[in-house]
Design goal:
Blueprint lengths: L9 H18 L4 H7 L3 E4 L5 H6 L3 E4 L4 E4 L5 H16 L4 H4 L3 H15 L10
Parallel strand pairs: 1-3
Antiparallel strand pairs: 2-3
Helix pairs in contact: 1-6, 2-4, 4-6
Bound molecules: zinc ion.
Zinc ion (ZN) binds next to α4 and α6.
Amino acid sequence: MLPSEGLVEPDLRQLAAAEAARLRTRLGTSDPLAIARLLGVEVRRRRRRSRADADAGIRSEYSTDPPAILVYDRTNASVGIAHELFHHGQCRGLLAPALCALSGEEAEACAHVFAEVLTGRRGAGDVD
Ligand SMILES: [Zn+2]
């Protein structure tokens, strides 16, 4: 979960924001936990696994089979869940193909924008 403004093409960030807004509208909620339930993704809260994870800034993780989100950071749980929902959308082809094809830092930057828009911390129109 590293905000990486400028690392990703603006149109990809715009697309991530639009997909978050579309998901919010389609499911009728901006609550990431409710969205996870609607999409069949289990959400579990855990203490951090290791000091290394803490040092790396890992606050949440997504695993694919079965789809599950582990949240380590209680203070930003909703943002962490929203971030991991982006990765779920990538894995399941629920997002635009250009977003599903992303990996590494590009995927993380778009997941960050997606999470901000999904949780209402940033408007879909705020992405340049
Ligand atoms: Zn991520």
